[in-house]
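lol forgot to send this yesterday, sorry. struct tokens for the thing we talked abt
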């Protein structure tokens, strides 16, 4: 899939390469949920449109895709990458982040059966963490697991191999998710212990795609209960403060 690089708030003309049958099928399917919005130009660019609804700005649609949130002209010929702020109140409100947060909450619910969960006995909060077995900061987070659990923070892991599906991390994470005891297996690989090769259906590729949609650019990436995403590692105490301030 081709990822479209666009500068914030810059206008881009969608390419007009010929449709292939899959693009046409995706466009027809998307039309059923997006009304009159023309998805064909975005399909040609490699986007899979999930929904398109009018935004707060007249003539501009907010479009949720498999690559995240973009804005588009009503005819689907121009797209804008950036954030919309409502400045009518005492402080600016990031309307785009509210949309993204709601999208993350909804999507994570669909992956509830595929996470590796470390559950706090006195659960007060739940976070989702995109992790990579070869990431040093991910290992630091995992080493402090007891600290998160003691503070009532349940940790649900999703796989996000930074080097893609052909790298070492992807192979390791597939083995983790296929293991008889995934929690023990994840701890093992984060301590450089080898696991048998994976031989089962696993969600690693789906988690990787989900992370791209969410805007993950590195690991660990922490998604709070509100849907807000925090990039990078935070020890238990600062993370708890972030969570409580987010409510």
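and heres what i got for the seq, position by position
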């Amino acid at each position: 899939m081709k990822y479209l690089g666009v500068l914030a708030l810059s206008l881009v003309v969608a390419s007009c390469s010929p449709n292939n049958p899959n693009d046409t099928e995706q466009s027809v399917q998307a039309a059923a949920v997006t009304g009159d919005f023309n998805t064909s130009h975005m399909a040609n660019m490699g986007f899979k449109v999930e929904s398109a609804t009018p935004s707060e700005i007249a003539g501009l649609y907010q479009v949720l895709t498999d690559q995240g949130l973009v804005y588009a002209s009503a005819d689907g010929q121009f797209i804008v990458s950036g954030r919309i702020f409502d400045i009518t109140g005492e402080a600016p409100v990031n309307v785009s982040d509210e949309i993204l947060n709601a999208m993350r909450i909804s999507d994570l619910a669909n992956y509830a059966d595929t996470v590796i969960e470390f559950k706090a006995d006195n659960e007060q909060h739940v976070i989702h963490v995109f992790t990579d077995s070869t990431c040093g900061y991910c290992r630091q987070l995992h080493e402090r697991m007891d600290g998160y659990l003691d503070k009532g923070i349940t940790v649900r892991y999703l796989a996000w191999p930074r080097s893609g599906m052909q790298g070492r991390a992807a192979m390791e994470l597939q083995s983790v998710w296929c293991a008889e005891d995934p929690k023990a297996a994840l701890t093992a690989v984060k301590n450089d212990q080898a696991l048998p090769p994976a031989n089962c259906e696993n969600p690693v590729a789906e988690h990787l795609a989900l992370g791209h949609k969410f805007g993950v650019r590195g690991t660990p990436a922490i998604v709070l209960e509100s849907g807000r995403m925090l990039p990078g590692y935070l020890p238990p105490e600062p993370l708890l403060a972030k969570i409580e301030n987010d409510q």
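The chain has nine helices and twelve strands. anyway ping me if u want another try
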